[in-house]
Design goal:
By secondary structure, the chain is mostly helical. The radius of gyration is 44 Å and the shape is elongated. Helices cover about 60% and strands about 10% of the residues. Strand 1 and strand 2 form a beta hairpin. Strands 2-1-3 form a 3-stranded antiparallel sheet, with no helix packed on it. It contains 3 helices and 3 strands; from the N terminus they run H-E-E-E-H-H. The longest helix has about 50 residues. The protein has a domain of about 80 residues.
């Protein structure tokens, strides 16, 4: 029977050997490149007899662990800055929407008041018969109509 210390050592050695055996090993070899008579470019691990062959060196590493991955994650500070900028934009948009709503409400109130004033004016009967009084009434009615046109677009 094996002792506990010996068994632990066998398990450790086996684990290390298994890890080494299963780790990816890049297969580097010569890559040959040539162009045939039709202008087609070919790549192979064996040189083509009778063709002008050049050795091809890949620019990127074939080992996936050595390959440079693009930086897709932002730093925490950049992320926070983007979040703050987005909050500021949303706040500015909300403030602008509130201003626009307030202006629309004010214009609606002014429109309602101008229409009401014109309605009241049109329902009043005045007994003015001289020309100057009639002209003043007409000017006032025109002013009321202009206010309605201005506020009630």
């Amino acid at each position: 029977m094996l002792k506990a210390g010996c068994l632990t050592r066998i398990v450790n050695v086996t684990s290390v050997l298994l890890a080494v055996a299963l780790s990816p090993v890049p297969a580097y070899g010569e890559i040959y490149r040539w162009t045939d008579a039709n202008g087609q470019v070919h790549f192979s691990d064996k040189p083509k007899a009778g063709e002008q062959v050049t050795t091809y060196q890949p620019e990127a590493s074939l080992n996936p662990y050595e390959a440079q991955q693009p930086q897709t994650l932002k730093s925490t500070d950049a992320y926070r800055a983007d979040e703050e900028a987005a909050k500021a934009r949303k706040k500015q948009q909300r403030i602008e929407a509130e201003r626009q709503q307030a202006a629309d409400d004010k214009r609606k109130r002014q429109c309602d008041k101008a229409r009401m004033d014109l309605r009241i004016y049109n329902t009043q009967r005045t007994g003015a018969t001289d020309l100057s009084a009639m002209m003043r009434k007409r000017q006032y009615r025109d002013q009321l109509n202009d206010r309605v046109k201005q506020y009630c677009r």
